[in-house]
Structures are given as structure tokens and as C-alpha cells.
Design brief:
The chain has about 425 residues and is an alpha/beta fold. The strands form 2 sheets. The chain has a 4-stranded parallel β-sheet with strand order 3-2-1-4, with helices on both faces. The longest helix has 18 residues.
Length: about 425
């Protein structure tokens, strides 16, 4: 099955990193059109009409989100969330590394639509090489007149700064990102007020993911109807999906939303390494885990939500028949326990207790009643935290305990027979990432 490449078109051309190579492929043409032939309100309407939904996890309408910013003379900001820290997700890194000007063009167009003049790319600290490439691309864009004052003689002013994070998963949460960008500790803020009203430095702020903003030039260049010709009615366009775990060809694949998940895993990624698919995360490690019976579902926002999971960041992590579900649950929980900022009690205590109870399971020290307690703890986490980090652990763990309870009970029994056994205390490594 071939990919449907829009963002990934010419992605392996090394010249695409440079402004000359990007412009030879038609780059910055959409920005020129937006500046000379389109009013900001028309841009907003086009972005809303095309149905582009956020590609970072929440799946909210990009056009509506931009439209929430108030009009007026106050300083407005745009922040690109490039803190790609969700386990199993590595699409934004490839997009930024190989086609940085596509992101810059999308940021400038979105900033003009939202009337924002100060823009930032908040990139995770571990992406040092990618951040250097972005710095070079931003300098090229300034020299060519696509950034700065009076862009292309239009009177529009947009400045762009690349800001490196310090390696914290929590800074992928939009309000924690804003605190970190302001030089504070990256803790989530209480909402409301929402960033669109009171965000960076107290001003109205639009926050979008890398992949979301990279779609903007294509929408402006080709129109909303063209964009809607891909995907489904509620999930328009294409999606870059990071496939990892126990598959033969892990990597990034750009697909049309709505194709069966089976085609993505078996045809593009080559299928599982051993036996069949036992379980799979459809949207990164924070998504409720699905089983082989859901492989024929359309890979879309609405179909995965109806199945009790979510498309999330678009990271498919595959577990084949060789994977222990209780061990996978423990590894997932350990990651979120480590990354919890500790600001709110349900997340701070809930992630810690979940790890301890799952350690008891794999060590054979638990009872079937402990599985009910684990499930109860997850229910008390979901929806009760300051941000969604607690939910990000509780949703997949709860789904695994519910769907594979028999395997949890068998694991307890086998470990008890083999007792004593040491609990694996190695640091958490996300599924699909080599140690």
C-alpha cells in the first residue's frame, strides 16, 4: 500500500533543508499568496473550513482555536509545540530536521491569521541537532525577508525564536510549556483562563503542534476543498504516523486518515515480528490500548474514539505475542511516574501507587483483589488532575488490566511459583525504544 504524501513529499531530498531547495519546490508561495491576496479573516475561515484538527494529541479544530484569540491592539503570541516527548512519537523530529522551512512558512501564515507578531518554536532539549537546523533555517528566512519587519513589503511583522527546553515530558502540556518559555519551572497552570485569552506573558496565545502548522501552507496554497478531499468527513487530510514496537519496518508513514489500521501495521510497517498482534497503542503511550479485534477500524479521530481509545499524537506502538502485558503496563506506568511534576495529588500519588502495585503483580506478591484496587486507582486519577499527565498513565493501564485481566492473574500465579524473584528496577524505557 503506498503512502499519501503531502508533508512528506520530497522529504528525503537533502536540498529541502535549505531555503533554495525549499523554494524550488514551491516553498513560501503560500505565504506570498496569503500576504498579497488574502485577508487574515479569510485565512481563519479557510483553516476552519478545511477541518484541520490538531496533530499533537487533542485533535481540536486548528481554525477554531486560532479564532478564539481576541482582536485588538494587544500583543499576541504564537507558540509551536515541538516538545515531542510522547513515547513512540518521532514524526515531528523528522519533519523539522528534513523540511524546516515548511514549519517556518506555516508559523508565519498562522501568525498573520491570528494577528500574532511574536512567535516561538519550543523544542525539546534532547533534539539539539534538530534545533541547530531550525536556527539555520530561521536565519535564512530572515535574510530572505520571510521573517522580521515588513515581510515582502506587506507591512506584516513576524519574529520567530527557537527555544530549547530542558528535557521534561510535562512541558509538552501547553500551559507548562508557557511557564517554561517564561523561564519558570514547567508546571501546568490552572484553566481557565485558557492560553487563547491569557497565555505567554499574560497575552493571548495560539499554541499548535509542528505537524499541524506544517499543514497550513498546503491548505492556503490548494484550498479547503482540496484538503477535505483526503481523509474522512470528521478527520480530514493526511496524518504522519510513527510506527514502532514489535514490527518489521518501524518508521514514519504519511497516510490518508481513515485507512484501516491493519493496512498501516501489516502493509506499511511489515507486520509483527513474532506471531500476530497482541495489543497496540493507536495514539502514543497515553492512549488506551486496543487488541487485534480493532485492527480493521478506520485510523481516524472519530473511529478510535468510538472504540474507547484515541488517535492522540499518531504514534502506533505494536506488541506482538512475545510481549508480556503486565510488564508493558509497568513500563508505561514507570515512565509517567518519573515524568509527573508532582503539583497535584491524584497524579503524584496515583502514578506512584500504580507502579508499586504493578511491581507486586510481576513479582508474584499481589492477589486478584489487587487488580481491582489498581483499576479503582485509575478511576480516581482520570479527570481529577490539573493536566492530562495522570490520565495519560491511567487510561492505558486501566485498559490493559480490564482487557487482559486473565494474563495479569496468570503472571501473579507464575511469579509466585517461581518465588523469590527480584523486581526489575531498571529505568523506564518506552515500548519500541531500544535500551
Amino acid at each position: 500500500m503506498p503512502e499519501t504524501r503531502i508533508l512528506f513529499r520530497h522529504i528525503d531530498d537533502p536540498d529541502l533543508r535549505t531555503i533554495e531547495g525549499y523554494r524550488r519546490r514551491g516553498g513560501y508561495g503560500a505565504l506570498e499568496r496569503a500576504l498579497r491576496h488574502t485577508e487574515p479573516e479569510q485565512l481563519l475561515n479557510e483553516l476552519e473550513e478545511c477541518g484541520l484538527r490538531g496533530r499533537g494529541g487533542a485533535g481540536f479544530s486548528m481554525g477554531k482555536k486560532a479564532g478564539f484569540l481576541p482582536r485588538g491592539e494587544m500583543q499576541k503570541y504564537l507558540c509551536c509545540n515541538a516538545d515531542e516527548s510522547e513515547p513512540g512519537t518521532f514524526k515531528d523530529r523528522e519533519l523539522m530536521s528534513k523540511n524546516p522551512h515548511q514549519l517556518i512558512e506555516g508559523i508565519v501564515i498562522a501568525a498573520i491569521a491570528a494577528d500574532a507578531t511574536k512567535t516561538f518554536i519550543y523544542i525539546r532539549g534532547e533534539y539539539a541537532e534538530t534545533a541547530d537546523l531550525l536556527d539555520e533555517a530561521v536565519a535564512e528566512a530572515y535574510d530572505a525577508g520571510f521573517l522580521g519587519e515588513n515581510i515582502l513589503g506587506s507591512g506584516a511583522n513576524v519574529d520567530l525564536v527557537v527555544h530549547r527546553g530542558a528535557g521534561a515530558y510535562i512541558c509538552g502540556e501547553e500551559t507548562a510549556l508557557l511557564d517554561s518559555l517564561e523561564g519558570k519551572r514547567g508546571n501546568p497552570r490552572l484553566k481557565p483562563p485558557f492560553p487563547a485569552i491569557q497565555g505567554l506573558y499574560g497575552g493571548p496565545t495560539l499554541i499548535n503542534n509542528v505537524e499541524t502548522l506544517m499543514n497550513v501552507p498546503h491548505v492556503v496554497r490548494n484550498g479547503a476543498d482540496w484538503f477535505k478531499s483526503f481523509g474522512t468527513e470528521q478527520s480530514t487530510g493526511t496524518k504522519v504516523v510513527s510506527v514502532s514496537g514489535r514490527v518489521k519496518r518501524p518508521g514514519n508513514y504519511e497516510i490518508e486518515l481513515g485507512i484501516p489500521a491493519r493496512e498501516l501495521i501489516f502493509e506499511l510497517a511489515g507486520g509483527p515480528l513474532t506471531g500476530g498482534v497482541k495489543a497496540w497503542y493507536p495514539g502514543g503511550s497515553s492512549a488506551p490500548v486496543l487488541g487485534p479485534e480493532e485492527l480493521d477500524l478506520p485510523y481516524s479521530f472519530e473511529a478510535l474514539a468510538d472504540a474507547g481509545s484515541m488517535l492522540g499524537s499518531g504514534a502506533v506502538i505494536v506488541a506482538d505475542e512475545s510481549v508480556s502485558i503486565p510488564q508493558m503496563a509497568l513500563r508505561t506506568a514507570r515512565f509517567y511516574q518519573h515524568e509527573s511534576c508532582g503539583k497535584c495529588t491524584p497524579c503524584r500519588e496515583g502514578t506512584n501507587w500504580t507502579v508499586k502495585m504493578l511491581e507486586r503483580v510481576v513479582a508474584g506478591q499481589a492477589t486478584p483483589m489487587d487488580l481491582d484496587i489498581i483499576a479503582s486507582v485509575q478511576e480516581n486519577i482520570i479527570g481529577h488532575c490539573l493536566c492530562v499527565l495522570g490520565d495519560a498513565m491511567a487510561m492505558p493501564v486501566a485498559s490493559m488490566v480490564k482487557r487482559w485481566r486473565g494474563e495479569f492473574e496468570e503472571t501473579i500465579a507464575r511469579a509466585r511459583e517461581a518465588s523469590p524473584i527480584a523486581i526489575d528496577a531498571a529505568p523506564a524505557i518506552p515500548i519500541g525504544v531500544d535500551a
